[in-house]
Structures are given as C-alpha cells and as structure tokens.
Amino acid sequence: MKILPKDKKGLIEAAIGKKPCDLLIKNAKIVNVFTGEIYNGNIGVYDGFIAHISCSIDNSEILNIESKNQYDAKGKYVIPGLIDSHIHIESTLMTPRNFAKAVIPCGTTTVVTDPHEIANVYGVDGVKYMHDSSEGLPMRQYVLAPSCVPAVLGFENAGAEIFSEEIEEMLKLERVIGLGEVMDFLGVIENSDRMVNILSVLEERGMFIQGHAPFLSGKRLSAYLCGGARTDHESRTSQEAREKIRNGMYVDARESSISKNVKDVVNGVKDFRYLDNLTLCTDDREADEILERGHMNDVVRCAIESGLNPIDAIRCATLNSARELGITNLGGIAPGYVADLVFLEELETMNVESVIFNGEIVAEKGVLLKKIEDRKFEIEEKNSIHIKDLTVDDFKLKAPIENGVIKAKVIEYGSQVSSATQIIEEEVRVKDGCVFLEKEDDIKFVIVINRHGKINTKSIGLVKNFGINKGTIGSTVSHDSHNLTIVYNDINEALKVMNDLINIKGGISCAFDGEIKGHLQLEVAGLMTTKEAKEIAVVAEKMKITLREMGLTEIKNPLLRIVTLALPVIPEGKMSDLGLIDVNKKEIINIF
Known about the structure:
Layout: H1 8-16, E1 21-31, E2 38-46, E3 49-55, E4 67-72, E5 77-80, E6 82-87, H2 96-103, E7 108-113, H3 116-122, H4 124-132, E8 140-145, H5 164-170, E9 176-182, H6 185-189, H7 193-205, E10 208-211, H8 218-227, E11 231-232, H9 238-246, E12 250-254, H10 262-269, E13 278-281, H11 287-293, H12 296-305, H13 310-316, H14 319-325, E14 341-344, E15 352-357, E16 360-364, E17 367-368, E18 404-413, E19 421-431, E20 434-436, E21 443-449, E22 458-464, E23 472-475, E24 484-488, H15 491-503, E25 507-512, E26 515-521, H16 533-549, E27 573-576, E28 579-582, E29 587-589
Parallel strand pairs: 1-4, 1-5, 6-7, 7-8, 8-9, 9-10, 11-12, 12-13, 18-22
Antiparallel strand pairs: 1-2, 2-3, 5-14, 14-15, 15-16, 16-17, 18-19, 19-20, 21-22, 21-24, 23-24, 23-25, 25-26, 27-28, 28-29
C-alpha cells in the first residue's frame, strides 16, 4: 500500500529542481529513522510529499532548495509524524472530529482505529459513521473492519453480529485498510467456521490483519499466527513480548488509560539486536489523560524513560508502525514520503513544538491552527439504550436453596490496576431464596443487562476485590458488547443507577447513600459525547473524585474499573448478559 501524490510528475520535477517546492523547512535537525543518524539539513516539500533533502552529512554543504514558502525550524529536531498502531477512538469518549482536535497538537498525524466498540452497538452503520465523520481532517484516521462482533459469538448478545459478508461490505470503504483485532483467539486456534471465513476474506486480498493474543504461548501462539494475524497489543509481561517478537509477531506496546505495559515490554526486548517488530499504541486513552500527558508523544516518552534509545523509541512510533501496516511511504523523512513532520526542542521529553501534516503546518505550541468544522451526523442523535421496565426484584440473585450458606463461583480481581481475573469459590449467605451480602463484604453483585433492544437478556453474578467499599457504579461502556453493567450491593441503588443511565442516553453513573452522586453523559451510542476534550475532562474529574471516595483509590482512572468486567476475551472469569464465562475454557458456567 502506498499513499499516492496528486501530482506525481510535479513532485519529480520539484525533486530534481525544475520547479520550486511548495515549502522549504530550513535549519532543521533531521532525525533519520532509517539509519539512526541526526544531522542538520533543509527539507523541500511539494504537494504534501517530501521532494528533496539537503543535509550536512560528511561535512557537505547544505544547498538551497527553491521554494514558494519557508519555515524556519530554528535548530529544532524534526521527526516523522507519530502513528498510533492500535486505538479505539470511542474509548477516548470523543467523536472522531473532536479526537482529532485533541491529538494533532501532540504530534499524532496517523491512527489505526478499530471501531468495534460502536460496531457492537450499531453494526456496519457504526463503522460507516466512524469512517465518514473522520473525512477531511488534518490527520489520517485509517479504519479497520471489526472482526469480532460480538467478541465471542454465543457467549454474549451485542447490538449486531458481523460475519464475512459484513466484512466484505466494510472493506469497500475508502479508508478501511484491513481487519480489526482478532479477539476470538480460541476461534482461530480451533478453526471455527466464522473466524476461518473472516480471515480468508482478508488473506485473499492480501490485507492487514490485526491480532489480539493475551497470554498466548507455545503451540497456541503458533496456531494463532498460522491463522493470519501478525500483531498483538495485549502483551503485559517482558517474557510475553520476547516470545512474540521471536516468533515474528509485531508487538504494539500499549500505554492506555487502563493498561500500562510499555515499561515491561521495553524491558523485555530492548536488548534484541533488531527492534523492527516493536511498535507503540494507546489502545484506550481517555480525554483527560490526553490533555494532561499527551497522546503518542507520551507513549514515546514512556518508552524512552523505560530505557529505549530516543531514536529507537521514535522509530517504533513511526517507521515500524507504517511497515506493520504495509504502507511504504509513511513514517520516515525521505524523498517520496508523506510530509508528516513533528518539531521538538528535545527528543527525550517529546514536548511538541509544531506539527506539519501533508506539508501544511496544522499545530503550534499546543494550539490547533487548522480549523476542523463541526458536522452533524444522524447516528449522534439516536438513542441506543433500549431496556424493558425492570424492578428491584430483577436485581436479586436467586439461589437454589431457601436459606443458609451455599458455595458460589466468584470473579476475583488480583488488583485494581489489572483487568485480569480468576474464578474462585466462596461461601455466601442465602436469605428467602436470594443471595444476601453485608455492606462491608468485599463481594459485590454484578448485573449485565442487554441494552440493544433486540433481546431482553440479563445475568447476575458475584465479583470480589472490585474495589468499591460502598455504593453502586453502572456503565454502558462495557467492552465489548457494551451492555449495561452495574456493580452493587444495594438493589435499590442499582435500579436508580440504571434509570439514570437510561435518562441520559448512556454513560457512567454512580450512587451511594441511596442517591445518584454523579454521571458522565455519553449520548452517542452510549460510548461517546459530542463535547470536546476539555469539557469532558471537567466532568470526568468530578466523577473520579466520587469513585475514589467509594474506594477506587489504587487505579489512576477509576472510571475505567468497570469497563472490562464483561470482556470475555481477557482471562479468566467475566460476566455477560448470558452468565458467568470461563474465558480459557470458553464455557458459560453455573454460579452455584
């Protein structure tokens, strides 16, 4: 795949000097991600592409490049535009256009987004919205066709189901360049008809296939790789990253608002002679963290702080990512490459001074210079919350005995900072045919209610070490089917939280002492809002304060604690609207 110039003939003429460049970038310290060198030079840009570079290698003279306009870098470092190799834009809580406003000043010029969050709500229509609403932006938003909607077929009910026919329809969209993360790794390993058919569609076209392989090792990893996926952003340990790169897999080291994995990944692979298969990504990073720390520039900074050479870290977020995608003229500073450039005072701090996209200056000193027009889309006005009337009785966990004590299977978290769980057995009290929990118990109820209106399913389970010591939290952001998930002790509070989320058309809500204490409205598909980052951050910070008061003090972003409780592709135990799932065995199991 290659990004083509509109005027190829003119680009060649500008390179040879027969016609002037559109822009000359002079007095730059050019970071060469092909060789690892840094040298002074001038960069000529024509039609959004680099035409020629005049540099001072081997004490040679920097020759002038004729141009219509000039930009003085004043000795700043110039690196390629940063590429996020794996992201779900919906997880920023922003629409694609508002997301662009937030990240472009951070130096992010290209992202690869898998819109499987909204696809689980609206199917192909949701993907088309993410594609169409990101058109004409001063950044590149490539879209992947979601591969696993729902994440694991038959174990949860989403708002849509995607098979090979829907994949083929999405691949016709202009900026859809491949297949989104193949989360049903067991389906791949076991040769399920659904996954075989979907992967075949992409392989027959020679298109990019993004992977998802948490904790896969040995023969299971080999089988998954033979299935066609070549990347993974789920590596959490040094050993995991080492094994995957040794097996030819791209590892997208992740620094999200939920999972901070860059340090462990870098420590595991930085002694390798070649780091071509190491890239960087954000996966799920919320608006407030983008405003506070940055976007891909912050991920590169983390890699440098973890011991990676600054040029290697930058290469991981530029050239390596482009090569992973198979784009042959993106991610480097060289003739014929796209003129996406970022200017820095220092490499180590990754504080962005200015940004050029397609040869045009689009941001300076944290301010977006290129106006992004507000556009309205029909899907932003739709209500995605469709739940039949429930009563407090619907929030009771019925037991197979009338009174006494019974053993129950419980989802247990190891800590507040991990989404990984295990399934344990605990004794719980039963009163009048229902499980009874004391307020001080570390075990809470969890209910998952289908909110998509096609089927009225719900399931109640038990979760330990979730982190709240009082109150109730509910969310329509609940990866990946995004059903309404509520963690609670008090059934009356749970009902209030549900009704609050219905009234605001989705989001995150919390209550204690019998009252709603706050909510974050996400009215677009129950996942996003049309508000901009700064406005989202203010409300989100108030919610975080409340959730910390409820006990979620260890996790940096307590809003995200609940969002992976129903994700049946992260081992070991998860809840869905159909019941308690043993992820490793791929079974729905009885709680009692």
